[in-house]
Amino acid sequence: MPPFQSLGICTLIFIQIILAAGNPCRAGLVINEFLADPAGADAGREFVELVNTGPGAINLLGVEFQFANGSVGPQWTTRWHLDTDWWLSEGDFFLLADRNWQGEVEPQVQVWLGLQNGPDAIRLLLQGETLDLVGYGPLTDLDLMEGEAVPLVTGLSLARRPDGNDTNNNHNDFISTTPTPGSANFNEYELKIESVGYEPPSLTHAGQSLILTVVLRNVGLLDIPITEMRVQLRSGSGENETVLETLFAGCAITQECQLFLGFAPNVMGRFHVFLELELPAENDPLIIHVGQLQVGAGEIYLSEVLSAPPSHQGEWVEIMAGAEIINLDNYKMRDEEGDWKDLPSVDLQPGEFLVVAQDSAALAQWHQENLAQGMVLDCPEDQMTGSLRQMPGSWPSLNNNPPEDRAFADRVYIADDEGNVLDHVTLPGSDSLPDGMGLSWERMSHHPSSSGWRQWRSCTAAQGGTPGCINSVADLLPTELELSVEPPLLDFELGIWVTHIRFVLGDDEENWHVEVFDLWGAKVRDLGGAVGGQGTRDLVWDGRDEQGHRVPIGGYVVLLHKSQENQSFRPVAKALVVVR
């Protein structure tokens, strides 16, 4: 039966009887959506949504909501009834929620629903007449369903598609979907995310390119046509960037559509990633949140990993805190195939290490053996053991060599409590290390905001690893140089799209200003300046001029100006960047 159309024809006599009692025909009232098996505990999460399919407003006076246990048969129990006037306008929803309701939408009524998980049935009753009946789960009793029963999926509601559609067959009328209590089940234009993947999963620096893979399913009521699409990065601080504008190839209703999107963010930070699609006519753009992306250093990041240890040492992972004190209660770690595992509950000071080990006792013994043999780490003797912690749960055992279905051996990820990846390292396998087993994989820079075009190398220390101490291959921040440009070469075809311009302000220096000139002295880009006081600065130039166009191939001079308080700028350093 078409949506919002009466289920039956009220005879003139019946209309007169009902109207005389103040109750118009209820043929338009149906069960529109219900959640019988929430994820986790059912209490406070179950709901039943009614809708008036019309025509006209109806009075719910005398309506009963009933439940029947399918394993017992058609023995109905009233869970709720209305003994006062309640007029429901055409197209409006009425929400019955379980007691101690935990949802965000305010229900009209809270009652004990006790729907159970099937085979069961629910119905609406008025003066002994069944207005609507829905059977769900592996139900066989024909008296407890319309047509065929509808299967139940844990965590998903059963909802009519479209709203109010009633063909007198439960199996055809209801589908499993994300719960939408108190609102429309399906929009005209709606895409549901089936899967999202970033390659690489996090970026070490601005200008690094990635591929975003998204699988979407059209769960709306209309086909989405070919249309314009934008990929936008939005930060909590208001720093936004449109990284890609392209065409969306369209997606028919109920169908999956897969997207492969390549882009390179020119800013650093943690960003929410959105797809924004233009829709026909007067519809607002369809905006889809596809997760978060970390560009550059987060509050914590990976510094060193030993995935192929000698048999007596055990695997371990070294994590380093960023610029702020951080508590690791809400952070997790996993490998490529494993589940997220909680990190130890510790506080890390800025720049402090944490070493989580498969076997902390074995790693401490390895350290003592090295000391006995005269192998001294480049840090105080107790720093390594002080930073060492056993993993609170099971260890995410790391592969030493690539399986058949991928090119790398394993990956280590760290993420926040929502699973947003803050950093990762790809492990190439023990056969890629110069001496095979026993060498850790070290980050060359403890500051991933630098360009770090090759971020990781095998350890060069005699003992094969530097847990809890400065890495043997560390490329630390400049402290003596006036100006550093990394990399000094931009090659757009090779994906080297930005260079990092880094310098240090001394104690007596207050202001800075950076400009880019061609070899003939013409200014092509003003990168700005600021008042900020002593410390390190890290700017990004994307090889574009003031108009946003890529500069021609050739050499370009980066010029740094500084000034002391209340004094004029003076040029203090310059560096060459080559564009090819």
Q: Please, could you describe this protein's structure?
A:
There is one protein chain. This protein has 580 residues and is mainly beta. The protein has four domains: 12-177, Immunoglobulin-like, CATH 2.60.40; 191-295, Immunoglobulins (Immunoglobulin-like); 302-322 and 352-458, no CATH class; 484-579, Immunoglobulin-like, CATH 2.60.40.4070. 6% of the residues lie in helices and 40% in strands. The protein has four helices and 39 strands. A six-stranded mixed β-sheet has the order 8-7-2-1-11-12. Strands 27-26-21-20-30-31 form a six-stranded mixed β-sheet. β18 and β19 (286-295) form a beta hairpin. The longest helix is centred in the middle third of the chain and has 13 residues, at 360-372. The N and C termini lie far apart (66 Å). Residues 1-25, 448-453 and 476-481 have low confidence and may be disordered.
Q: Topology, please?
A:
Elements: H1 12-20, E1 29-35, E2 47-52, E3 58-59, E4 63-69, E5 76-81, E6 87-88, E7 93-98, E8 109-111, E9 120-126, E10 129-136, E11 157-160, H2 170-173, E12 174-177, E13 191-199, E14 210-218, E15 227-234, E16 240-248, E17 256-263, E18 269-277, E19 286-295, E20 300-306, E21 316-321, E22 326-327, E23 331-335, E24 341-342, E25 347-348, E26 353-357, H3 360-372, H4 381-386, E27 388-390, E28 410-416, E29 421-427, E30 441-443, E31 456-458, E32 484-486, E33 489-490, E34 499-505, E35 511-518, E36 523-531, E37 535-541, E38 554-563, E39 570-579
Parallel strand pairs: 7-8, 26-27, 33-39
Antiparallel strand pairs: 1-2, 1-11, 2-7, 3-6, 4-5, 4-9, 9-10, 11-12, 13-14, 14-17, 15-16, 15-18, 18-19, 20-21, 20-30, 21-26, 22-25, 23-24, 23-28, 28-29, 30-31, 32-34, 34-37, 35-36, 35-38, 38-39
